[in-house]
Amino acid sequence: MIVILVPGFWLGASSWREVGPALTAAGHTVRALTLPGLESTGADRAGIGVREHVGAVIAAIDAEDEPVALVGHSGGGPLAYAAADARPDRVARIVFVDAGPLASGASINDALPAAGADVPLPDWTAFEEAELAGLTAELRDRMRAEAVPEPVGVAREPIELSDERRRAIPATVICTSMPAAQVRELIAADHPYVRELAAMRDAAPVDLPTGHWPQFSRPAELGARIVAALGS
Fold first, then answer.
1. Residue 136: which CATH number?
2. What is the Cα–Cα distance from 201 to 2, expressed in whole angstroms?
3. Which of 129, 150, 159, 165 is the most buried (most CB within 10 A)?
């Protein structure tokens, strides 16, 4: 299967480099994306918003001759879901990595502080301990060295969805900083945070205990979880 990897905020295709080998070894073809404005710290991010990022994922889907699987980490999860909404007949499965779908009209994270057109990676003190679990000082340095400011429009503009067929696409949620049991509890309580996830007809949460960035902290295990999800 062709697997399109959609990175979360501040990251590009290189963030998946230690995850891809497990997918390739299982016979999948990997397409890791770097979304517009994330090419380098010097890239022009003015005018880049959610539509441009969703459009880049749609373009990657359209470039293939067969249905694809979408894997979205963090903020890349809602982008992958919006692209699936635009191409529901071309997406065979969605895998959310410490992420989930957003309802139409919601923004990915409008609380992140911006500097003009940029949302820089915040200081580590801005994150909860559960998010940072497994991210050693060395890994934090490596990730920060790779990080590129996110376009502010991607964080703040609303996601737009229109095709109910998106909810029929099978999905797996790889839970890393929040246990799968807690996700199930939120669904049972009809929490707004997971309402769109609850509306999906076949969405299974699975655990990978670590922090918010398993592609750095436990990349081989993340690759194995994705392979298992694709085979389910």
1. 3.40.50.1820
2. 23
3. 150
Boundaries of domain holding 184: 2-231
91, amino acid identity: V
Contacts of 180 (CB under 8 A, 6+ apart): 173, 205, 206, 207
Q: Which residues contact 125 (CB under 8 A, 6 or more apart)?
A: none
Count of domains observed in the chain: 1
Would strands 118-119 and 68-73 be described as parallel, antiparallel, or unpaired?
unpaired
Between CA 2 and CA 197 the distance in angstroms is: 24
| Tokens (6 digits) for 185 | 């509890």
Residue 125 phi, psi (nearest 5): -65, -15
pTM listed for this prediction: 0.97
Give the single-character DSSP code of 86: H
- Range 179-186, long-range pairs (CB < 8 A, 24+ positions): 179/207, 179/209, 180/205, 180/206, 180/207
Q: Angle CA(57)–CA(62)–CA(66) in degrees, nearest 5?
A: 115
Contact criterion met (CB below 8 Å) for 79 and 50 = yes
- pLDDT tens readout for residues 178-202: 999 999 999 999 999 999 999 999 9
- The segments of the chain whose pLDDT lies below 70 read 232
CB-CB contact of 12 with 148 (8 Å): yes
The tokens describing 214, both together, are 């398993």
Q: 3-state SS string over 162-209?
A: CCHHHHHCCEEEEECCCCHHHHHHHHHCCCHHHHHHHHCCCEEEEECC
